[in-house]
Automatic annotation (TrEMBL):
CDD domains: PGRP (cd06583). It comes from Streptomyces longisporus. Residues 27-180 form the N-acetylmuramoyl-L-alanine amidase domain. The lineage of its organism: Bacteria, Bacillati, Actinomycetota, Actinomycetes, Kitasatosporales. SUPFAM superfamilies: N-acetylmuramoyl-L-alanine amidase-like (SSF55846). This is N-acetylmuramoyl-L-alanine amidase. InterPro entries: Amidase/PGRP_sf, Amidase_domain. Transmembrane segments: none annotated.
Length: 196
């Protein structure tokens, strides 16, 4: 069981992995904590945004939209590999997911097939939204993939987690397809190597 790191530790950890970080507005205090607690935290969820255009994507992830208020993640990773911090605390990114998956993440074991949505993921996960149309054709530039690896690694390094604490939205919530365009096993392999 882990308490969320402080916003300052989060920022420092991302920069220590070599990331270019942009702080968007008062991201430190922008959250959904009034809807419930954030923590204990157990892992990281990776998403794609199904959007294009960095400025639009960052704004959407910060502010949300009708029916789903922002922030929609903690950091937005744009095509150029920059991470834009848009919120810190509870964020509307993971939604309801599978309690069996959560138990596997906590135990750092292989994930079971996702087949139910009965557990609040917004409470238990850090979230990174990654700018991509999610159509399987929109490219993932090397700078962006490197940044996704580094961002997830920074969180794992702080908490002493392995790569098994990093999951895709599709592994958490039935019906989700993100991130589309690379596999989570491939990403976890890169994170494992980076943590050595």
């Amino acid at each position: 069981m882990a308490s969320p790191m402080s916003a300052g530790s989060f920022l420092d950890g991302l920069r220590a992995e070599g990331l270019t970080v942009v702080e968007v507005g008062d991201w430190v205090h922008h959250n959904r904590n009034h809807k419930g607690p954030w923590g204990p935290v157990y892992g990281v969820v990776i998403h794609h945004t199904a959007t294009s255009g960095s400025e639009h994507t960052v704004e959407l992830c910060r502010d949300g939209y009708a029916g789903l208020p922002g922030p929609l993640c903690h950091g937005v990773i744009t095509k150029d590999g920059t991470i834009h911090l848009v919120g810190y605390g509870r964020a509307n990114h993971a939604g309801l997911g599978d309690d069996d998956v959560l138990r596997a993440v906590i135990a750092e074991k292989a994930l079971p097939p996702v087949n139910e949505a009965n557990t609040d993921g917004n409470r238990h996960f850090y979230g990174f939204e990654c700018e991509n149309l999610g159509d399987g054709e929109d490219p993932w530039p090397k700078a962006q993939l490197d940044a996704i690896e580094k961002a997830a690694t920074a969180v794992c390094r702080h908490h002493g987690w392995t790569e098994r604490s990093v999951i895709g939205h599709l592994e958490w919530q039935p019906g989700k397809v993100d991130p589309r365009g690379f596999t989570m096993d491939w990403l976890r392999g890169r994170i494992r190597e980076r943590l050595k």
